[in-house]
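Bug #77: duplicate submission created two jobs. Keeping one. Sequence:
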Amino acid sequence: MKVTDIEGLVQAITAQILEQVEQKTSSTDLVLACERTLQTPPKVSGDERVRWSLPTDPLAQGLVIKELSLAQLASLVALQVPDETTKEAQAYLLAGKPVWVLETHLPEEPQKLRYGLRQKLASLQAEAQRYGVIFLAPEEALSVSSVTKRQKPVAKTGKFITAQELATAFQQKDFQLPAGSRLTPLAVDFAREHAITM
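Kept job's structure:
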């Protein structure tokens, strides 16, 4: 089998996979994962239809956690994994998916704490929010509009350009890739090695 045959086969398989993924994600339902300990899912604001699933569902676009202790919050910010809840939350955050926390075990009257401790708690919460954790106030409805805007897949059309095709095009004086085309991983490496910018 020649390299061009293999590259053609890779393009055909990739196109089929992309088509299947687009079909699965084109549903109007928003898939959210619910922590196993959460008995009833929270209220959702807006007119989004939500399908609740387990945290292991690869189609889930966000995770809802019932509660996060101070130790779990500190571990999450430090990117440590002491327990299953923190592990699941970290996996979603590293995948770029939001995590909603319904309750935290932070002191109810932080003004009674010493200044240094109050600052540390505020910085932990702010850092977690920068990672994508959303803390909900009691009785606050879960707003998923940011997820639907951010997480909808972008239809990627066009042909994959292989390293060999890019090398051939690179030999020409002025070359231009077709609109909508994408590079295979080897072609990306070739582009980096030859300082080709897109």
